[in-house]
Structure formats: structure tokens, C-alpha cells
Write a structure and sequence with these properties.
Helix 1 runs parallel beside helix 3 (94-115) and helix 2 (56-84) packs antiparallel against helix 3. This protein has helices at residues 27-48, 56-84, 94-115, 120-129, 131-148, 152-158, 160-166, 169-182, 189-206, 215-241, 245-250, 260-288. The chain starts with 26 loop residues before the first helix and ends with a helix. The chain has two domains: 13-183, no CATH class; 186-289, no CATH class. It is mainly α. The chain is globular. Bound molecules: protoporphyrin IX containing FE.
């Protein structure tokens, strides 16, 4: 049969969210899907119970924005975590996490429009004129483009171009964080922790391939990111609130309240400990054979 006569292989739009590539039921994907849906159910339940405060639409808009960024970070973490823990099957979760980030972004933008009484002229006007909303809009368009090209059929059709297109996730993450920071002038602590984790992941990806498995390299990147976070926090408050940067930096050495750099250091230490334990376990198993 010539190539022209051969019927074209049809690709399903999506493989089942509960099955792995071989078509078998996957516990890992099922747990991940449950965790992806849980925040939406939680927000909806609190709304119905009247526990979202005096401005429920606004609160739900903020919550969905925060979940969008969390799932974006989790999506970016798949490749590094897969490599650190030698857990190749983790890759099957990346699409689900990316689509979940796009879903929460959609909910976030829809709730923003709802907050403005769906006055679309005003909403679109704000989206193209207010700086932090322009950043959010560009990030949203990028995320939607990636979501629409995440189907099996699109991956097959785009071939090698797909990888190049999906590298856009990095500038999209930068724009999303920039948008996030500009909404948090008074207290940027909540934005700094996920931003620091993302910076760590991006620096790891930018490292030479041969040094990526080195724990010492990972630890030195973590220390660098903690220092950048502390300096960034001091600089931000000096710029926006006129606070003495020395006072903000000193707070990193007191334990009356956890600073972003301290929280990040604790997170990094836990992750490094888990990686070390995983490697020790593999080593012990190999030795005992
Ligand atoms: C058309 C696109 C977008 C619009 C119109 C929009 C709009 C907004 C608005 C109005 C706020 C609240 C600002 C305030 O109350 O001071 C906000 C906060 C936020 N947005 Fe967006 N946004 C967009 C895209 C995104 C994207 C793509 C992400 C992340 C993936 C995102 C994540 C966040 C986060 C994390 C917050 C802060 C939530 C909090 O304070 O807990 N937004 N956004």
C-alpha cells in the first residue's frame, strides 16, 4: 500500500485522565485528578456556605488566581522532580497539571468579568490598558494556546514544533508571577515563596546537564535563591513602602515570624532530604542484590 493510500492514523483528542499510556487504570493519575479538582470544590463549597466573606466573587477570583499559579508551578516541577527521584512515570501528570492551571486561570478571568457585572467593554478595556492586567492577559492567552495544543492529535500534528511551542510555558510563568507580584504590594510574602521555588526549578533547568543530578549543585542553587529572595523582599518593600531594607533583612534572622526566605530554606531542605533518602534507598537495594 502506498503512503497516499494508507489510511491516516487517528489520534484521540485526549487519552483518558484515569488511564496511563498503555490503557491501564492509573492510581497516580486518579489521585492527581482528585487533587486538581479539590480546590474548585472547596471554593464552591465555601461560597455556598457563605464563608467567602463580604465579597465572595472577589474572594473566589483571588483564590482561583492563586490556584492557577500553584498548578503552573507544579506543572513546571514535573521534569525536575522526575529526574531527582528517578520517577519516570511522573511525566504522565504534566498535561493534567498544565490543563488544571489553564482551567483555574479561566475561572479567575471569568470571575473578574463577573465582578464587573460582565460589562465586557470595560473588562476588555482594562485588560489592554492596566499594566498588571496586560501581563495577566498575555499570560492567559499563552496558557490557553498551550492548553488547546495539548491534545494527542495536536501533539502528533505539530511534531517537533510542539516542543518549541510548549517552551513558552517559561515566559508565561514569568508574566504570571509579575502579574501576581503587582497585585501584592502590601504583603508579597505569599508570592515570594512560589516564585522562589519556580526560580530554583528554572535555574536547575538552565544548569549544565552533567551537574543536574548533583545534590551539592542543587543545594548551592537553593542557597542562592534564598539569598535572592531575602534581597528581593527588602528591595520591594523599600521601593513600594519606603521601609528600611536593613529592617526587612534583619527579620530573616529572627524567628518571631517566618520570612519568605526562611520558609523557602525549610522547603528546600525538606526536598533535598527526600532526594538524599531516595538515593540512599536505591543504593541500598542495588548493594543488597
Ligand atoms: C485576563 C487575564 C487576567 C486578569 C484580568 C486578572 C485579574 C486579576 C485581578 C483583578 C486580580 C486582583 C487584584 C487586586 O485585588 O488587587 C488578580 C490577582 C491575581 N491573579 Fe490574575 N488576572 C489574569 C490572569 C492571571 C493569570 C494568567 C494568573 C496565573 C496563572 C493570575 C494569577 C493571579 C494571582 C495569583 C492573583 C493574586 C491572588 C491573591 O491575592 O491571592 N492571573 N488578577
Amino acid at each position: 500500500m502506498s503512503t497516499e493510500q494508507r489510511p491516516k492514523r487517528r489520534h484521540a483528542v485526549f487519552s483518558s485522565p484515569l488511564k496511563d499510556r498503555t490503557g491501564c487504570f492509573s492510581w497516580v493519575k486518579t489521585i492527581c485528578l482528585t487533587l486538581c479538582v479539590a480546590p474548585a470544590l472547596y471554593i464552591a463549597a465555601w461560597w455556598v456556605a457563605g464563608r467567602l466573606g463580604g465579597r465572595p466573587i472577589h474572594q473566589a477570583m483571588l483564590d482561583t488566581g492563586f490556584w492557577a499559579i500553584r498548578f503552573l508551578v507544579l506543572c513546571l516541577a514535573v521534569t525536575p522532580v522526575r529526574s531527582w527521584f528517578d520517577w519516570s512515570r511522573l511525566i504522565q501528570l504534566r498535561r493534567m497539571l498544565g490543563l488544571t492551571a489553564a482551567f483555574y486561570t479561566f475561572a479567575h478571568v471569568t470571575l473578574y468579568a463577573a465582578q464587573q457585572g460582565f460589562d465586557m467593554g470595560f473588562v476588555l478595556g482594562q485588560m489592554v490598558t492596566v499594566f498588571y492586567l496586560i501581563l495577566g492577559t498575555v499570560a492567559t492567552l499563552g496558557l490557553f494556546a498551550l492548553a488547546l495544543t495539548s491534545t494527542d492529535a495536536a501533539i502528533a500534528r505539530l511534531g517537533k514544533k510542539w516542543i518549541g511551542l510548549h517552551r513558552l510555558i517559561y515566559p508565561i510563568a514569568v508574566l504570571s508571577f509579575w502579574h501576581f507580584f503587582l497585585t501584592q504590594k502590601i504583603d508579597i510574602g505569599t508570592a515570594l515563596v512560589p516564585a522562589g521555588l519556580t526560580l530554583w526549578l528554572l535555574l536547575w533547568r538552565a544548569s549544565a546537564a552533567r551537574s543536574r543530578r548533583s545534590l551539592a549543585r542543587l543545594a548551592s542553587l537553593a542557597m542562592g535563591v534564598a539569598v535572592i529572595t531575602a534581597l528581593g523582599e527588602a528591595g520591594w518593600y523599600a521601593l513600594y513602602s519606603g521601609l528600611n531594607p536593613r529592617l526587612v533583612l534583619d527579620a530573616n534572622f529572627s524567628f518571631s515570624r517566618w520570612s519568605a526566605a526562611q520558609q523557602l530554606t525549610a522547603d528546600f531542605a525538606l526536598i533535598l532530604l527526600l532526594i538524599a533518602m531516595r538515593r540512599l534507598l536505591s543504593f541500598t537495594i542495588v548493594q543488597s542484590r
